[in-house]
User: Which sequence fits this backbone?
């Protein structure tokens, strides 16, 4: 697109350099969309700017550094447009978690106007794709229609109507082949069975339902589903559908009339979705999806929106007092057509030429009636004589007619049974589909629960292994500390456990004790005393327990059991010390 003097210049920045303008993606009557780069994230984004350029409502931009926008109309009206523009951003933010809706990133005011920043979808519109291919295959059309319906199913749960669904507003991601619904500029919230008053009637002819052209009319999910049907019509035939007014006046040119290769079942779905009366269309996206999945022909129940041959009133005008604005509009148009038709007939009858034709016509009819009367009188006399003869024949014909009537009744009963069976089959198919969807949802939920449980178990196992590792490290540290502690005690005992001779001298008495006060808390120390003879034999072995290391004295009298030449060895905690030998 060429750069407009009223657009931002390439390489301009917004938000103090946060966004760098790269190119212009599109420009309409209410705004300009730019391709930009997020300077901090380094990602491509789409920025929509409020800039009016329609009729008397238009803006201009200063050709200065500020790039400030000046509305060339009432400031209060411009403020209202800004509020509506920001409402679109709020709507997108509200639908942030809906798949198939562009995600809002940022919103701000600058240059005396409003902006909002969205994710950039690299791809093309559905209109560009169909224009390139002339028309789509059945599989492609159904794929995009199902994606669109799945998105609308979630959007409608928020009580939001898009109100401008058309091929231009459906983007296709070239990397994933998924659709993205854009341009919620005239979207708004609704309440079921409530009348919406439009201050501004805005719609796209061919894709908008008839109630959208009426200021006070009920709108609901069926309004968006009309547009989905129109989009499906466009994908299958490559042609833009007729406007809702044309369909009401002339009937719908069905897709199969354009391309005979289109299957009857999908043709019937498009026909149902494009019916002017809201009650005759699909009411929810789920109903539309079910029809696409079952692939069954939707029967024509007499509610096809067409006029009869005499251009009389609409064939399906409701007798209920709660008539929608669409029905009233249809009735009014038909009454106008009937009045025009009567006026034309009256003008033709009053002309001189038509009077002569009228007189000749009546003379012919009178002559024909006279001849017919004579013939009837003649045959009346003959009928009197042949009455008895024909009585038997009439009885036979009567019996035959009764038999035929009974056969017709039997056939009608069979047809009713077949219809009931078809209805039961359809109900059963829908029931099975609901059961299958419920099972799939249940399986998906169970799978998610299993995944969450496995994740919790993995986390618990990781924590358990971490605790075991810490326990092993603590035990090893305690073991090393205990070993060090024991070695310190052994060294201390080896150094401080001693003995002395008894008062009598010689080997009459031996006392074993600890020289110094112990810095360690030890309940007792076992000292083994071995008495060894001069020949090296162990004469005796005895364990002495020192329970109080600081003041403990353990004595033993060996005088009567020892002789000269004997040797006594002391073992402290089973460790022998040569320094503790007594000769």
Assistant:
């Amino acid at each position: 697109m060429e750069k407009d003097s009223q657009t931002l210049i390439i390489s301009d920045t917004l938000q103090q350099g946060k966004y760098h303008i790269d190119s212009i993606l599109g420009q309409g009557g209410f705004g300009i969309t730019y391709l930009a780069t997020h300077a901090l994230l380094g990602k491509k984004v789409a920025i929509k700017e409020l800039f009016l350029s329609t009729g008397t409502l238009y803006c201009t931009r200063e050709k200065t550094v500020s790039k400030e926008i000046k509305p060339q109309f009432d400031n209060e009206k411009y403020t209202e447009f800004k509020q509506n523009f920001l409402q679109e951003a709020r709507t997108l933010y509200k639908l942030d978690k809906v798949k198939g809706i562009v995600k809002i990133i940022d919103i701000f005011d600058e240059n005396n106007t409003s902006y909002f920043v969205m994710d950039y979808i690299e791809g093309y519109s559905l209109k560009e794709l169909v224009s390139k291919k002339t028309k789509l295959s059945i599989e492609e059309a159904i794929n995009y229609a199902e994606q669109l319906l799945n998105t609308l199913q979630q959007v409608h749960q928020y009580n939001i109507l898009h109100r401008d669904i058309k091929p231009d507003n459906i983007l296709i991601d070239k990397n994933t082949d998924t659709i993205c619904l854009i341009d919620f500029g005239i979207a708004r919230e609704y309440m079921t069975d409530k009348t919406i008053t439009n201050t501004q009637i805005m719609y796209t002819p061919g894709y908008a339902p008839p109630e959208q052209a009426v200021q006070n009319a009920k709108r609901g999910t069926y309004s968006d589903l009309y547009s989905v049907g129109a989009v499906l019509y466009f994908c299958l035939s490559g042609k833009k559908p007729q406007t809702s007014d044309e369909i009401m006046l002339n009937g719908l040119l069905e897709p199969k009339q354009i391309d005979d290769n289109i299957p009857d079942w999908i043709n019937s779905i498009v026909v149902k979705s494009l019916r002017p009366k809201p009650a005759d269309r699909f009411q929810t996206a789920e109903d539309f999806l079910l029809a696409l999945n079952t692939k069954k022909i939707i029967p024509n129940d007499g509610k096809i929106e067409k006029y009869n041959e005499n251009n009389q009133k609409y064939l399906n005008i409701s007798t209920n007092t709660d008539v929608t604005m669409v029905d009233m509009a249809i009735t009014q148009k038909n009454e106008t057509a009937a009045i025009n038709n009567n006026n034309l007939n009256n003008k033709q009858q009053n002309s001189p030429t038509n009077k002569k034709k009228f007189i000749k016509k009546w003379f012919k009819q009178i002559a024909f009636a006279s001849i017919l009367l004579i013939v009837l009188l003649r045959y009346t006399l003959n009928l009197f004589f042949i009455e008895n003869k024909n009585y038997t024949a009439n009885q036979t014909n009567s019996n035959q007619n009764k038999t035929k009537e009974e056969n017709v009744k039997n056939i009608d009963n069979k047809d009713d049974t077949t219809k009931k069976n078809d209805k039961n089959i359809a109900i059963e198919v829908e029931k099975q589909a609901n059961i299958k969807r419920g099972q799939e949802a249940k399986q998906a939920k169970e799978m998610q629960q299993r995944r969450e449980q496995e994740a919790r178990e993995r986390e618990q196992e990781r924590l358990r292994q971490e605790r075991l590792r810490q326990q092993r490290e603590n035990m090893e540290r305690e073991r090393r500390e205990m070993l060090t502690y024991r070695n310190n005690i052994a060294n201390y005992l080896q150094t401080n456990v001693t003995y002395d001779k008894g008062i009598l001298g010689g080997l009459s008495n031996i006392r074993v004790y600890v020289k110094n006060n112990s810095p360690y808390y030890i309940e007792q120390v076992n000292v083994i005393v071995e008495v060894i003879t001069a020949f090296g034999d162990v004469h005796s072995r005895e364990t002495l327990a020192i329970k109080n290391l600081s003041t403990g004295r353990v004595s033993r009298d060996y005088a009567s059991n020892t002789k000269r030449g004997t040797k006594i060895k002391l073992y402290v905690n089973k460790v022998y010390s040569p320094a503790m030998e007594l000769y």
